[in-house]
From TrEMBL, chains A, B, C, D:
Positions of transmembrane segments: none
Domain of life: Bacteria
PROSITE patterns linked: HTH_TETR_2
Stated name of the protein: TetR/AcrR family transcriptional regulator
Lineage: Bacteria, Bacillati, Bacillota, Bacilli, Bacillales
Keywords from the named record: DNA-binding
DNA-binding region listed in the record: 28-47
Gene3D superfamilies (alphabetical): Homeodomain-like, Tetracycline Repressor, domain 2
Organism, scientific name: Jeotgalibacillus haloalkalitolerans
Length: 193, 193, 193, 193
DNA sequence: TATGAATGAGACTTCATTCAT
DNA sequence: GATGAATGAAGTCTCATTCAT
């Protein structure tokens, strides 16, 4: 399995750094190779093409992420509480890796439609996770019984994503983790009193 | 004033069509010129360069948009009602121009950081509009008194944007305007019952 | 005769200023028109094309120049003295019109081979003038009897031209007219004592 | 060192041929690449941009030239004799490479001011060489003791350059090397007998 | 496995010139 | 005669990918 060879991860991590520091459009394959300490051609022994690096990057990082959250959420069965864990974990992950935060919130979005479609496929796992929480909430009666799950999920994801993006655009200069209680409260209770 | 000359709008509208149909990265200046029915060089009598077309496009369309909403919102002073108008109008605008929807929700986001920064400046006007509604709501007591305006605005915008993007990704095959009551309700009341 | 109409000279003088201030490659027809206070299209009522402006410019200015020198040289029949007048007059003309000096010594030389060939044709008149002086000098016995007229002319012209060009490149910051005695002496006596 | 790789010189020599045969303004990079037998992109592995080719070309060829002359001039200490070597060598170099003669005497002079400034820097070395000869001549008493070195150098260079340019303009149809005694005699003794 | 020199397609922009008014 | 908006051809350079070593 290629993914287990040491250079696979080496190249992906190099890609994160190079994209974060140079921006998506200046992240040439040769720069990634240099950062990883391998020859340009070596990249193509592990990845089909440049797109493949980006998608693998997202798969690798996002996959870990979903697994982590699922584990953490296992501690409770209360959907509201699970949502809290979700928001906290999401923000925590971004806060833990500043480079990755830049890459996922800003740079990777400049990729072309093709790549973005395939990234969305990876994202689906995360969205299913959200759906599960919401579904659970409706079934256990802690969330509104006539909740439109799809819309609700879009609110949850859209809100978390926008808060995260704003934080990155503002150079991550405040603590995003401290925002989770406020975000959680807004999602659960809405704008009204 | 160049913006008042007929070809200015002609070219911008051509750009919307070409970008929507070919994607951001395949929207060559020559294609836009052809679609507008002018010579390549004519573009440069009205725009400094290709970037300038894109930014002007966004300014022109978004500017109109903010003005329209402000006018509609003038009918009521109730923040909750104003929010409803906001969501409805936003979705309506996207539904009214399928090409523009693709361009603003998908294609323009692939532009480089420079352009995106300048697009964000235009977007700010819209965000200020949201802030005004929320501020009004807090002051008149219809919204939660301890609302974090910035977070709340990020929820409102993030949700609307995510709903819109999903709709475009799914080829606009359902009615987005019919979603406004649900979105509005979610924003105001949250996920709980 | 087009050359007698007021706008003909107006445009040529505008061209001198524009080329001197912007350099040959940035001297667009539209700039020349603006400087002359006429419309772009008007240029083409007086000149066949852009080349024609440049060649006419040279003809006009250089023609006057040769006539002036011939007149001044008529005062004496001594070739050595005539050569002195030649050098002095040449330098004086350049000192009198700083813009023209830049144009003839630096900018016009960047024109393509075609234009330069035609400029050389105009220059020929000047070279014939030099030949006449030298021929006269040989015949009257004041110059070396076995002088190779062509080579001698190339030395005279090459020297004057190089001194002038160096002066322009150094921003005309010293007096070129004061150099004429030295140049004259060098040409006549050579480097030896 | 890039300059030592075989393709570096290959491309420079191709540039000389292409510029000589097509003229400066029609010497596209693609033509140079074709002449050199490499891909367009390969050019940019060895040169920063098109300007860089031209400047390198001049540096390379002119650098060799100055070294050659210095070596030849080492045989004698007599300034008059050294001057003879200088003129002969200069003409010999041009006669040896007809393409290069066209490029340096005619085509490269059409380059823009930027390039010409940098070419002048290379040329300076040559001018210093001339200055050294003249200085030596004055100090050893073979040249006029009150010689203005700068003016004298301008006469030497201006004369050589003008003779060379005329020869190239006339399609190199006579032998330029045979002119060196005449030119040398003129420079040393002047026009008088 | 690993290397890295070489490849070559593809698009933005300028500006001399025209011609309907 | 005068205008100036419109035209459209043409060239530099980047960078993902390959393949001989």
């Amino acid at each position: 399995m290629k993914k287990d060879k040491p250079k696979y991860k080496l190249i992906i991590d190099a890609a994160v750094v190079v994209i974060a520091e140079n921006g998506y459009h200046h992240a040439q394959v040769s720069k990634i190779a240099k950062q990883a300490g391998v020859a340009d051609g070596t990249i193509y022994l592990y990845f089909k093409n440049k797109e493949d690096i980006l998608i693998s990057l997202f798969e690798e990082k996002m996959g870990q992420f979903v697994q982590k959250i699922r584990k953490k959420m296992a501690d409770t069965e209360d959907a509201v509480e699970q949502l809290k864990v979700l928001v906290e974990s999401h923000f925590q992950m971004l806060a833990d890796d500043h480079h990755l935060a830049i890459v996922t919130q800003l740079e990777l979005r400049q990729s072309n439609k093709d790549i973005r479609m395939r990234i969305n496929k990876v994202l689906k796992e995360y969205l299913v996770l959200v759906d599960d929480v919401l579904q659970n909430g409706v079934e256990t009666g802690v969330l509104s019984e006539d909740l439109d799950i799809r819309l609700a999920r879009q609110m949850v994801f859209g809100t978390i994503d926008e808060v995260a993006t704003s934080w990155v655009i503002n150079d991550q200069k405040y603590s995003i983790t401290e925002l989770s209680p406020g975000v959680h409260r807004l999602l659960v209770k809405g704008l009204c009193k």
